[in-house]
Every structure is written in C-alpha cells, then in structure tokens.
Amino acid sequence: MDSHSQATPVPNPELTPELAQELAPWLALNTRTCCLLEVGGFRPTGDPAASHVGLAPLMDPSEAWPADAAGQPMQFIAQFNLQQAPWLPRALQGHALLQFFVGEKFIESSCAPETWAIKLRASTEGLTAREQPAFRDDPWLTKGFEARWLAPQQDHPCYDDSDMRLPGGMDEFPDEAHGLCSGRTKLGGYPKSLQHEIAFLRAVEDENGEWLPSPDEPVYVLQIDSEAKAGLNWVDGGIVYLGCHPATGKWSVHCQFY
Where, by residue number, does the polypeptide cross the bilayer (predicted)? Predict the structure, then answer.
C-alpha cells in the first residue's frame, strides 16, 4: 500500500541505532511508511477543511447525514485532510478528505457495514461544515479537536501479522521488535493488533477443512486510536481499523480493544 513518490520516512523513534543494527536483517523485510496524526496540543487554524476529531465535518449542502439501519443519525468521529498529509497509502491517493461515522450498534454488531460510514471526497469545493444531529445513544466522543499530520516515519509489524517475514537464520519474531508497531491514529504502516491478527472478514473453510482468509479480505489502510483528549474510547483503549480491497475498492472496518 506504500506510495512511490512521497516524503522519505524518518526512522521509528522507538528504534535506537544499536537496536537498528541488531535487527537490520529483520527490518529489511518488515518496514513500511506511516503518517501519525497529532490530535490537539497546538494552536488550531480554524480551517473547517483541516483534519479533526469530533468537530463539524464538511458536507455537500444537499447531502443527507449518514444513518444506521434503524434510520438513526450516526455520530461523526473524524475528518482526515488527505491533501495536507505528507504521505499517503495508495488507496487514499487522489482523495481530498476521508470522514468516518459510526452508529450506536457499532461494537455490539462486530462492526457490521450498516453501523458505520466512510466518506471519501475528491474535493472540498462547495462543501460546508455540518453540525452533528442529535445522537440517541451515549456519544462515542465528547470533545472536538483540530488535528495535524506529523512527518512520515517507519513502522514495523506485530508478532502475529501474517505479512511479517523472518530472514534466514531467524526462527521466531525477535523480542526486541515488540513495541515497534505504532498504536496511534495513523495512515499506512502496519495495524497494531490488541487481541490477535487483524481480520476484517470471517475466514472461510476450504474443501480440506482448512480455514483461509476470505477472498474478499481487504488490505489494511489506516487505524483510528482511542483519542483521550476527545473522550474517544473504543470500549477499553481500543483501535478501529479501516481496510480497502484493492480490486473492488470496497471498504471494511474492524475493531479490537483490551
């Protein structure tokens, strides 16, 4: 999913020079670019098109607010300004904004498609900020903050990621690599698992009784962390993952928590 023409990432801040040398063969096979989001903690610009968590999303004046299967308005979670990001995964290139909404049954339904909405916008032209309609259930977040992208950095997989590769002479995930996968809100990189390897769709059983990933399994694109400043808590310090199938463009969502 990495882009081929964007800013060069800096090393993972958790990776000391000594550790980088020790893990060099493993890092050569297990490094991707990611772009972290900083939520609050700086003077906001007030730009309604800026990235933010829990403020007013930009929408077309004639556009209906996303609703769940029961017709209830979803709650707006985040708006990511992709044009301001110094690096993008391929699935997001060519888009101006990504917005994420969830309904009240989001977690208990195991992230069923009717309980969330992803809005990808090619341009911000003609869009205006829209206030959140009344949300029937307890809100997912309680405060709004502008956010901004940090410089791209290198990211590395968790031990249970099936994309993780072991170099010759290494039989298992190196203990020193634990903690090198960022759990913050980020574009790209590797998904930070909290329970087990990320799987957006149920596995399928083949004719030999083997359980295999669904042929419709998407590719991870970004994750949204529990953002304490905004009062956003996915159950218990959880993370929401967004994935897109590279052939069909279909999006899927998954959540894990402690």
Answer: none
Cβ of 61: how many Cβ atoms within 10 Å? 8
Amino acid identity, residue 212? Answer: L
Q: Is 228 helix (H, G, I), strand (E, B) or coil?
A: helix
Nearest C-alpha neighbor of 225 from the set 196, 185, 192: 185
In tens, the pLDDT along 116-145 reads 999 999 999 999 999 999 987 788 999 999
Sorted by sequence, the CB contacts under 8 Å of residue 120 that are 6+ apart come out as 92, 95, 97, 98
User: CB of 122 within 8 A of CB of 38?
Assistant: no
Per-domain residue ranges of the chain: 17-256
Token pair listed for 41: 């903690």
Which one of 3.10.20.30, 3.40.1190.20, 2.70.40.10, 2.30.320.10 gives the CATH number of domain 17-256? Answer: 2.30.320.10
- In the chain, the amino acid numbered 126 is G
| Residue 46 Ramachandran class (φ > 0 left, ψ -120 to 50 alpha, else beta) | left
Give the single-character DSSP code of 252. Answer: E
What are the C-alpha distances in Å from 33 to residues 45, 80, 139, 252? Answer: 27, 17, 33, 21
Q: Token digits for 85?
A: 């990001």
